[in-house]
């Protein structure tokens, strides 16, 4: 047996409410979520009630809170269909008033909920501000203490690739401003593929908990708050939370911008530091190159000085050797001349000065003059030859003495030049 009860009038959300009588055997589940997420299709598929209108675009077909009940496995399920926030036919405040009105009637009749299904389209590429505002008002109505009775239902799985849907589902679970806080407090995620058997499993999962509860809005009513106050509080809380989230997002953007600027500043500082280090490295390279060039220049000068000194030493040695040979030649000449003078002196003692070169014997001492084989008169040598040779020797001695004097003068000048070069070398080295 299936039935239907609702609140409302033909123009939309109304002021008169009807609620089911309190019964422990009835499983009451509220179906909530944004417009166009498949709430009415889900209920129609389960109840097999063809009178439930289903939209095929983002315009809402549910204009009032209505409950549809049916029996499954001996249990009566009552599915409460609610208009979505961001409804095309009414503003969010009117929708909140309608839902709170229904909750007020449920509280008066002591009808508690067994669970809440919150719908979301998996085909949506991202979560917009409207969806976040919808969820904030839902959480305010439900209360954080009841989030463990909430099932987060993703729909339209047949219209998206499995891998893409799974990635988006993972993003919803990890979004700190969407589902993650609810999951951390006990909410669960289920998938609806428009398969009645699978959808019945979702309802049985709620029913098996057998844990009825009042929402936060119902608790507020029990504490004396009026419907208007609760509606206004939900709307205000949503706006406040939205403002806080926007401020947090703005702060996050500012922090991100500051972090970016700080990274840019650090990158520029590191770039300047790297450029300074490179410049220092280039200066160090230039300094070392200059030192190497100076060292090579010093080595070149030292090698050149050593070469000049070695050449000078060799020239000095050659000159000394030449002087030594000259001295040796002079000594030999002197010795020969001395021997010649001694020989001539001996000859002079035996030759008569009055000798007649035409006679064979001396007219004074009558010593015999021998003839050589060439027919010349000879007593070894004639006195004329001796005198002639002696004069020639005297001339050679004079020439040799003059040559020696010139050599000694040149040697003295060369010694002075060598001394000056040695002094220059010592100055360069110092």
From TrEMBL:
InterPro entries: GTP-bd, P-loop_NTPase. One of its GO terms (molecular function) is GTP binding. It comes from the Eukaryota. The keyword Coiled coil applies. Keywords: Coiled coil. Residues 29-120 form the G domain. It holds the Pfam family MMR_HSR1. SUPFAM superfamilies: P-loop containing nucleoside triphosphate hydrolases. Residues 242-326 form a coiled coil. This is G domain-containing protein. It comes from Vermiconidia calcicola.
